[in-house]
Write a structure and sequence with these properties.
Layout lengths: L6 H4 L4 H14 L4 H34 L3 H49 L3 H6 L2 H43 L1 H8 L2 H38 L1 H6 L3 H53 L5 H42 L18 E9 L6 E10 L4 E5 L6 H8 L7 E6 L2 E2 L5 H7 E4 L10 H6 L7 H10 L3 H5 L18 H15 L3 E5 L7 H15 L3 E5 L3 H5 L3 E6 L2 E6 L1 H7 L2 H12 L3
Parallel strand pairs: 3-8, 3-9, 6-7, 7-8
Antiparallel strand pairs: 1-2, 1-4, 4-5, 9-10
Bound molecules: adenosine-5'-diphosphate.
């Protein structure tokens, strides 16, 4: 789950990449245009409030105090209060609007990503581990939150403020403005250095945090192994050392900031001193009035904070762009399995025609040149050693993946040309262990068909002979299954999984038989349920039990990715090949 080491490379984008990513993000923010515009309006208003204050003070001093005009003084004080209060209120509103736009954007991004992930084919999940996906949805989106909420606001407010303040200063006295700006070169050089150093320090901190977290995680989840070998001390020493590195890189990044903020503040003091010195001299020469000097000093005090903020923003933009980039990579992944235009017929033959297959993330082909025709209503058992490719073949028959070579069709329609709706309606896969979600038994069966009524659910459960068992529970089919179905026994969980398939009522069932055995009582119920479910349907079953194999119409022996033998039990036994050998081994192991 945690990003460990090697952060530097994929966390750094070059300028063009950063720009492209930000441009795309801005396009995505289009639906929030109004909120953003409102926020901008309030930003402008609050900045004006902040800057007009000093101007009014200057005016009040010159025309009210120095000129000894009480009315002007009173008006200036009133105007000051009004302007500052409006600025203050606007600042509150700006905060609300910026957050509304920001949170809205993040929320839509989260939903979009989730929806996109849900639609991906299985190949996608072979490539991305769930931990990585979760960290995209949480850490990366959060790091973007920093940008869209604080970063953008600060950027816009700072630019507004600097531009308007400079404009006001120039309008009041160009001499004083030049004097104050004498410190600018130092600030610019300092800011450049700060951006470089702090970016380095920031990346280092992130890398160390990642390392630290993964050590923490391993130390906790591996504690049993660690204690079994009495290695607690060693683990702690390792943790201490990685913590010390984290501490050092934190201190280093603080030192970089402190140094820079100190510089900017010192320059602020310098600029103020120059303003007062030069200003006093200009006042003595009657070139300007004293109120102008005061207004200048007050404006300067507003000017240096945004300069600091702008420099810090650089890092935020960098890390957010890196996070966005990773998210976009996911959003740009097209599902490999997409629906076609045709509806599958209600019934038909399932034809596997010369297929080959390799998993997307590997080179080695798992299946080679497999051809099988499964008749309507036929029961086909897939048998063979572990890793031979049985489950893979079953997944292809249900189009969880597409074959790399060849084609699979149902009722004459290539599965790739079928609509996904008709495909999932005709062909249902029952996995070895069906995942149970939090909720009731009914909710869990309903997963297969959203909107199914309780009666339909009961019918489906009854069709596999499982209704009575669940009706015995205190809350019947509305009994909560708890997390991952912990309230139910293993057999009952399988019944729920089978009931899902019964609810869809498909023409073709693809079963991956559970390898783990159940207690004999439950086993019988599950077997009976399976039998009922298979009756009248085309069934492909990855079989592990002799009883399942014996009830099959034909048996396909898969070995090392190839179809080794195909025929009925009797035919294959008569052939005297692999199946015959397996079968006689089974016979001998059975109790007589
Ligand atoms: P079986 O069901 O006969 O035990 P599988 O079809 O599960 O065999 O696996 C066949 C081969 O494909 C194995 O070598 C396995 O390691 C590989 N394999 C299975 N699933 C994946 C996957 N998602 N990604 C890459 N390789 C896989």
């Amino acid at each position: 789950m945690f990003r460990v080491g090697g952060v530097a490379d994929d966390d750094k984008l070059d300028k063009d990449q950063t720009r492209a990513v930000l441009r795309r993000a801005i396009r995505m923010a289009a639906p929030f245009r109004r909120t953003i515009l409102a926020a901008l309006g309030f930003v402008l208003l609050s900045t004006l409030g902040l800057l007009l204050g000093p101007v009014i003070v200057g005016y009040g001093i010159d025309n009210g105090i120095v000129a000894n005009d009480r009315t002007v003084l009173r008006n200036a004080v009133l105007a000051y209060v009004v302007v500052v209060v409006i600025g203050y209120l606007a600042a509150r509103q700006q905060y609300i609007f910026v957050n509304r736009a920001g949170e809205g954007f993040l929320q839509s991004l989260r939903v979009r990503t989730f929806d996109h992930i849900q639609k991906q084919s299985l190949g996608f999940f072979d490539r991305y581990q769930s931990g990585v996906l979760i960290s995209r949805m949480t850490a990366d989106i959060e790091s973007m939150g920093e940008l869209v909420q604080w970063g953008l606001l600060q950027l816009i407010a700072a630019v507004f403020l600097i531009v308007i303040a400079l404009g006001l200063m120039l309008a009041m006295s160009w001499q004083l403005t030049i004097g104050a700006l004498l410190v600018m070169p130092v600030i610019i050089i300092g800011s450049r250095k700060f951006q470089r150093d702090s970016n380095e320090a920031y990346l280092e901190v992130r890398e160390r945090v990642g390392q630290n977290l993964s050590e923490l995680q391993e130390g906790i989840s591996g504690v049993r192994v660690i204690q079994a070998y009495a290695q607690e001390g060693q683990q702690t020493r390792q943790f201490v050392s990685s913590n010390r590195s984290l501490y050092r890189s934190h201190v280093r990044s603080i030192r970089v900031s402190t140094w820079y903020f100190g510089l900017v503040e010192a320059m602020g003091i310098f600029a103020t001193a120059i303003t007062i010195g030069v200003g006093g001299w200009l006042v003595g020469m009657d070139a300007i009035e004293i109120g102008t000097v005061v207004a200048f000093v007050l404006l300067l005090s507003q000017l240096f904070e945004p300069v600091q903020q702008l420099s810090q923003l650089y890092n935020t933009v960098q890390s957010s762009a890196a996070a966005l980039d990773k998210l976009f990579t996911i959003l740009d992944t097209q599902p490999e399995v997409e629906g076609g235009p045709l509806d599958l017929p209600e019934r038909g033959e399932l034809v596997v025609d010369g297929i080959g297959f390799a998993y997307p993330n590997t080179e080695a082909s798992v299946l080679r040149d497999v051809t099988i025709t499964v008749g309507d209503g036929e029961r086909l058992a897939l048998v063979g050693p572990t890793g031979a490719g049985k489950s893979t073949l079953a997944k292809l028959m249900a189009r969880l993946y597409d074959p790399t070579v060849g084609a699979i069709s149902f009722g004459g329609v290539d599965l790739r040309d079928a609509t996904l709706d008709s495909l999932r309606q005709r062909v249902v896969v029952v996995p070895q262990e069906g995942f149970l979600f939090g909720g009731s038994i009914a909710d869990n069966v309903r997963i297969a068909k959203a909107g199914a009524t309780d009666d339909e659910l009961r019918e489906a459960l009854d069709a596999i002979g499982a209704l009575d068992r669940f009706e015995e529970f205190e809350d019947g089919i509305h009994t909560e299954v708890r997390e991952r179905g912990s309230r139910l026994s293993a057999g009952e969980r399988q019944l729920v999984s089978l009931a899902r398939a019964a609810l869809v009522d498909p023409a073709v069932l693809v079963l991956d038989e559970a390898t783990s055995s159940l207690d004999p009582g439950t086993e019988l119920i599950v077997e009976a349920a399976l039998e009922k479910l298979m009756t009248g349907r085309t069934t492909i079953v990855v079989a592990h039990r002799l009883s399942t194999i014996r009830t099959a119409d034909r048996i396909a022996v898969i070995d090392a990715g190839e179809l080794a033998e195909l025929g009925t039990h009797d035919e294959l036994v008569a052939q005297g090949g692999r199946y015959a050998a397996l079968s006689s081994a089974w016979q001998q192991s059975l109790p007589t």
